[in-house]
From TrEMBL:
MF-aspect GO terms: hydrolase activity, acting on carbon-nitrogen (but not peptide) bonds, in linear amides; metal ion binding
Organism: Bosea caraganae
Family: Belongs to the creatininase superfamily.
A Pfam family annotated for this UniProt entry: Creatininase
Keyword Hydrolase appears in the UniProt entry: yes
Cofactor(s) the record lists: Zn(2+)
InterPro entries: Creatininase-like_sf, Creatininase/forma_Hydrolase
Keyword terms of this UniProt record: Hydrolase, Metal-binding, Zinc
This protein's name: Creatininase family protein
Length: 233
């Protein structure tokens, strides 16, 4: 259930019934020909699709994240780590005050991963709380399904090209982009990174069939649902 469609009284009663809640984490950054909000769109949708049958509340996506590498691409907005950690702390405290003790962060952007170090620190203070960070696209089941379709899958490639991340009127190149020099990329500043990447696709095809993508999506939803349901301390 979407918190955006609940009032405070319903949230209070829900937390008494079940102390789990979900927060999607996204980012606004270049994704080649796809939406700049691809990570936010995917994180929010997979969280809602996974949690809905469980009747668990999903808070609105935290759309902005840490993405300094793509700062040279217009439209990319990167949050400083100190700002992001402070924001996550405030949000965790808000969930805690609302009665939630088991919190799942469904993450759609790899650059947000360092926040789990802070979450572990926070759990040291809130010892009755538990936080999971689930990189939904990097889950073992989802990645195995991706590789079974096409191992050449990466940032802004076909792997993130779903009907809900495409832009109307924007055509995808019909080609396979070759890999780039990753060590050089990692050692470069944002302007040089843009020069190396060009359009922003790391490597691989730009699009595959909707049938393939919808099947992959179902794997990602089911894997995310299992993380929400299982393995709590």
């Amino acid at each position: 259930m979407r918190v955006a469609e609940m009032n405070w009284m319903q949230v209070e009663e829900q937390a008494k019934r079940d102390d789990r809640c979900v927060l999607p984490l996204g980012c606004v950054e270049q994704h080649a020909y796809l939406s700049l909000a691809t990570d936010a769109i995917l994180a929010e949708k997979v969280a809602n699709d996974a949690a809905d049958p469980l009747g668990l509340p999903v808070f609105p996506v935290l759309a902005y994240g840490m993405t300094p590498s793509f700062a040279a691409y217009p439209g990319t907005v990167s949050i400083r780590m100190s700002t992001y950690v402070a924001l996550i702390e405030d949000m965790l405290e808000g969930f805690y005050r609302s009665g939630f003790r088991r919190i799942v962060l469904v993450n759609g952007h790899g650059g947000n991963n360092p926040v789990m170090t802070f979450c572990t620190e926070w759990m040291g203070k809130r010892t009755d709380a538990s936080v999971k960070l689930h990189d939904w696209w990097a889950g073992p089941r989802f990645q195995a399904a991706v590789k079974a379709v096409d191992p050449a899958a990466s940032h802004a490639s076909w792997m993130e090209n779903f009907p809900w991340t495409r832009l109307e009127g924007v055509a995808m190149p019909d080609e396979v982009k070759p890999p780039f020099d990753r060590p050089l990329y990692l050692a470069s500043n944002p302007a040089k990174k843009r020069e190396i990447l060009g359009d922003g696709n790391f490597w691989g095809r730009y699009q595959r069939s909707d049938n393939e993508m919808l099947s992959l999506w179902q794997v990602g939803v089911e894997e995310t649902r299992a993380v929400i349901e299982e393995g709590w301390p």
